[in-house]
Amino acid sequence: MPDTPQTTYADAGVDVEAGDRAVELMKASVRRATRPEVLGGLGGFAGLFDASVLGRMAHPVLATSTDGVGTKVAIAQAMDVHDTIGFDLVGMVVDDIVVCGAEPLFMTDYIATGKVVPERIAAIVGGIARACEQAGVALVGGETAEHPGLLEPGEYDVAGAATGVVERADLLTPELVQPGDVVLGVASSGLHANGFSLVRRVIADAGWRLDRDVPEFGRTLGEELLTPTRVYAADLLRLVRTVPVHALSHVTGGGLAANLARVLPSGTTAVLDRASWTPPAVFSVIGDLGNVPQADLERTLNVGVGFAVVLPADQVDAALEVLSDCELPAWVLGEVRRTDQVDGAAAEVVTGAKGVDAGGAQLIGVHPA
Q1: How much is the pTM?
Q2: Confidence of residue 120 (pLDDT cuts 50, 70, 90)
Q3: 316-325 vs 233-242: helix crossing angle, rounded to 10
Q4: How far, in Å, CA of 107 to CA of 94, rounded?
Q5: Of 12, 100, 197, 207, which is least packed with CB atoms within 10 Å of its CB?
Q6: 224, 286 contact by CB (below 8 A)
């Protein structure tokens, strides 16, 4: 039998030593993303979290969420900038947990790549760790997988999952919302991490390069698109612990109206006035550049509203003060009405998003020039 050349794992495109080097580079940043309840260190088969803290709660309810950052990773890869995508990932995951009033406790991440470049992996995880630290969430573990032949050497994707907890009596549910409640808008930092398939199509069709200087942004197109997602978790927890909030809505895929409708009870509709805010320039630039219909823009992007807060009218001033102290720009966006008191002929009422049988939301008016 003729001699057969040896084939190693490295020959197949997987560099185990590079993975170990990536772990060494990320250790310092991950150590900072912790909480007192975390047991053990980096590198175990499972992340450990001391759940005895839940014993101090009357009726603890666990909340969990998982997400990724979509095709925004293509912008990061094209720009060769990888330390901001972690904020997008953490924001997409932990801020969903806050919607029900829960405190996010710990998070894990997963990175799949065509080739492990230790410095690139460490930059991604470093961003995740910094965002977790900002949110008060422990990063208790993760996985980096090398997929040669499936992904190109410079390609990667990221995903994450988190778990939180809330007292049963403190859960934010649609049943708390009442007609007459006020809706506050909390500003986004930009596009966040939704709708990038539309954004990338628009700029590709227009022939715009990522290094193009855009006067409306005061920087390059790529720099604007990579603006990291604002992470709201810690600040919104402070809000709900200070003011009797009835509902929160994280404005992600589907846009403002669809996501707000999900947290309202059937028979109610939030009427939101576009005249109450001016979206950041990136939304008008993308809309104008691609001649994107307003309805499509609003059901794809956050148009400047990262979160909506629903609360009693007599709590508005107190809530705005808390949000101001947190350096979160916020304003009165609209109000909740009985659906039978809403003029459905004036504008579309969005209902049924994500298959949820809940309330509705309606956008009226025009943004200030």
Answers
A1: 0.92
A2: very high
A3: 150
A4: 8
A5: 207
A6: no
